[in-house]
Amino acid sequence: MDVLVFGAGALGSLVGGLLAREHAVTLVGRDPHVGRIREDGLRISGEFDAHVGPEAASEVDGLSADLALVTVKAYDTAAAAAALSGEGVDIDLVCSLQNGLTEGELRAALGDRVLAGTATYGAELVDPGRVRCTGVGRVHVGELDGGESDRAERVAAAFREAGLDCEADPGMPRRRWEKLAVNAGINAVSALARVRNGALAEPPAADVAERATREAARVARAEGVDLTGGDARAALRTVVGETAGNRSSMFQDVRAERRTEVDAINGAVVERGRKHGLETPTNRTLAELLGAWETARGLRPADGDRNR
Ligand SMILES: NC(=O)C1=CN([C@@H]2O[C@H](COP(=O)(O)OP(=O)(O)OC[C@H]3O[C@@H](n4cnc5c(N)ncnc54)[C@H](OP(=O)(O)O)[C@@H]3O)[C@@H](O)[C@H]2O)C=CC1
Ligand SMILES: CC(C)(CO)C(=O)C(=O)O
Predict the structure, then answer these.
(1) Which of 205, 254, 262, 284 could be bridged to 191 by S-S, CB 3.0 to 4.6 A?
(2) Which run of H or of E encompasses 37?
(3) Which range, of 152-161, 241-250, 275-284, averages the lowest pLDDT?
(4) 43 in any annotated domain
(5) CA dist 308 to 125, 204, 217, 219, Å?
(6) Which residues contact 185 (CB under 8 A, 6 or more apart)?
(7) Which residues lie with the beta carbon below 6 Å from any ligand 2 atom?
(8) ipTM of the prediction
(9) Does 143 share its domain with 257?
(10) Which of 30, 250, 307 best tests ligand 1's pocket when mutated (most atoms within 8 Å of CB)?
(11) What Gene3D superfamilies has UniProt attached to this entry (predicted)?
């Protein structure tokens, strides 16, 4: 399979690099990472030890692929959608592995070529040309609206050929919402309280996290997804326990003074809830507080547009 990875940062370089062991892969990212990969290949350390030689580029013009994986941060989704739907690029299928609800934006630009995806691998970019796998997880792919899918099965088989743990899932709407509900509970709370995930097992942080997760599950049900508040809270407790020693990605972003994905996680819960006439006060407060911090640090686009 010819695979293009749009957004060769931590996750994109890890997944793309592992896929390059078996498939023709082009990583689309930024210099100096892209330049180093061209000169010396990509080194993968941590849970894997590999040195691979994918193609690397800074632009998509002139590229074609059977599958494009979208691995930019959620706030860069509009740019990814615009690039991948441009005239100079020829892509059959697109699959996001991002956190947050981004597929709608991709589908608006790219139509029914878009599959939903989730990834629970852990990745860190350590240096240009070097990525570390900090946790072996699993990738799930499937149709945005759910259901059996030959094309998702083909993608999952291609991932497995390259040694990645990957399944096609006919229940992606529920899987996406459960992941969103867990991220809505953990990420912003841990970032604002400056605590590792394990601290969310105890009150009062656990209560705030559970309220955010329960609100997300209520919105999911309004969207027609079969996710009970009890199931979502059980998933939250499981992930808090399994990742107790982790700093969530949002806590890491705040520590590094980087923009966060709060709009695509807690903000998305608020926006979708509003469409159904549902109040989501905990998610709204979390999104507003992190938004205020991002604004004060000059991390948001000046015009206030959520997508830069
Ligand atoms: N890292 C992880 O372990 C996991 C991450 N995820 C999700 O995956 C997504 C990506 O996360 P992560 O890999 O950590 O993020 P990174 O910031 O490391 O990677 C994104 C990369 O895309 C680049 N990029 C953005 N826009 C463009 C563009 N127009 N052209 C070329 N390159 C571009 C960024 O460059 P620049 O920074 O210069 O803009 C950056 O290098 C997020 O949604 C995250 O939540 C999910 C599971 C695990
Ligand atoms: C599962 C969890 C909360 C692990 O830290 C995560 O996805 C993140 O940090 O973004």
Answers:
(1) 254
(2) helix 33-40
(3) 241-250
(4) yes
(5) 23, 35, 28, 26
(6) 200, 209, 210, 212, 213, 216, 236
(7) 99, 183, 186-187, 197, 239, 243, 246, 248-249
(8) 0.98
(9) no
(10) 30
(11) N-(1-d-carboxylethyl)-l-norvaline Dehydrogenase, domain 2, NAD(P)-binding Rossmann-like Domain
